[in-house]
Amino acid sequence: MSAKGQQGRKPRADVQRNRAALLEAAQRHFLRAGVGASLEAVAKEAGVGPATLYRHFPTREALLAAVLQTRSEELVARQEDIALLGDASEALRQWLRALEEYFSAFSGLPEPLMAAVREREPDNPLTLPCDELIATTDEYVRAAQLAGHARPSVKGYDLYLAAVSVAWIKGSGATDEESLDRLRALIESGYREQDGEE
Amino acid sequence: MSAKGQQGRKPRADVQRNRAALLEAAQRHFLRAGVGASLEAVAKEAGVGPATLYRHFPTREALLAAVLQTRSEELVARQEDIALLGDASEALRQWLRALEEYFSAFSGLPEPLMAAVREREPDNPLTLPCDELIATTDEYVRAAQLAGHARPSVKGYDLYLAAVSVAWIKGSGATDEESLDRLRALIESGYREQDGEE
DNA sequence: ACCTGAACACCGTTCAAGT
DNA sequence: ACCTGAACACCGTTCAAGT
C-alpha cells in the first residue's frame, strides 16, 4: 500500500509541462468564455488529449480551483495591505471590494462557488477556499463591530453573500458601473452603524 | 402579403392541444431541473417531436416566457392587494418580497432574466416583462420616497437588482432561511430613511 | 399548415491500446 | 506511470418527408 502513485518524488518532465499548459489554456478559455468553457477546447489548445486533462483535473471544479490558486494568493497579499490601514471600517470596505473582484475573475464564477458552499462535500476543491474567505470576512466584520462601525446583527457570511451577489450582477453584464456603485452604497449603509460615523 | 400564417383564425385543435401539453410539461421540467432542463425531454413528455416544440417556441426564452405568463398574472393580482395597504413603506417591502418569489419560480431563472435586460433585443420575449417589473418597482420606490420612507438616492432598478440577487442566492440553495432574512434586513436598512420610522 | 423522426453537430467522459 | 485518440452518451437544432 506504500508504493502508490504520488509519492514525494519529482513528477516526470512532460507531466509538469502538460499541467502548466493546461492551466494556461484553461485560464485563457475561462476568461474568454466563462467558467463553462469547453474542456475539449482547453485540452486541444494545451496540445493534449481530453483524457489527459481528466487525469490531471478529474472535475471542472478541480481545474477551476487550480486556476484560481494564483488569484487567491493575490487576495492574501491584499489582506496584508489592508491590515496596515488601522481603520476597521475602511478595512472592511476594502476587503469586500477585494472579494468582489476575486469573484469577478471569470464570468459565471459565482455559481460554482455557491455550489461548493452548498454541498459541503470534501471532494469539492472549491469548498476549502470559500470557507476560508468566509472566515476572513467574519474577522473583518467583528473588528468593525468592536470599533462601533458595523451593526451587531450582521455576520461575515451575510457580507460574503452580498459580495458574491454584486459580482454575479456585474458578471451578468446587465448593469453599468453607476448602478453597481449605488448597489454597493446600499449594502454599505445596510451594515453600517448609523451613529458611528465619527 | 396578407394571407400569411397566423391570421385571427382559430388554430387547429391539435395545435392548441400540443401547445398546452408543451407548456405543462415544460413547467414540470423547469420545476424539477431548473430553467436549463432538457428541451428534448420536455417534447417527449408532451408527446411531440422536438421540431414541434421549436415551431411553437423558437427559443428556450420563448418557452420560459410563456410558462411565466401565469406567474406574471399572479404578480399583477398581488399588486392590487398591496395598493390597498395605503402605507408606502410596507407596500414597497411587500412588493420586493413578491418580486423575489417570482424570480424564485424556477432554479436558475435569475440568469436569463438578467440576460434579457442586458441584451435589450426586442426578439427576447423576457425583456418586456422585466422592463415592466423594473418600472413598477420604481413607482413603489417613488411613493416611499415621497412619504419619507426611502432615501432619495435609491432607484427602483437598484432594488430590482437586490431582489434578483436574493432570489439567486436562494436558488443556489447554499443558504438557510435565517441568512436570507438577515440579507433582506440588510438591504432594507440600506434603502430606508433612518429618521422616517414614525 | 403542421407534424414526425431521422440526421447533424457539439461536447463531456471513459476506455482500450500504446510507450 | 502517463498519454493518445477512438468511442459512447446526451442534447440542441434542423431538415426532408409525410398528412
From TrEMBL, chains A, B:
UniProt cross-references to InterPro entries, sorted A to Z: Homeodomain-like_sf, HTH-type_TetR-like_transc_reg, HTH_TetR, TetR_SbtR-like_C
**DNA-binding as a keyword?**
yes
DNA-binding region boundaries: 38-57
Q: Which residues form the HTH tetR-type domain?
A: 16-75
Q: Does the keyword Phosphoprotein feature in the UniProt annotation?
A: no
Q: Which UniProt keywords apply?
A: DNA-binding, Transcription, Transcription regulation
What top-level branch of life does the organism fall under? Bacteria
* Family matches, as PANTHER family: HTH-TYPE TRANSCRIPTIONAL REGULATOR BETI, HTH-TYPE TRANSCRIPTIONAL REGULATOR RUTR
- Name of the featured protein: TetR/AcrR family transcriptional regulator
**Species this chain originates from:** Nocardiopsis tropica
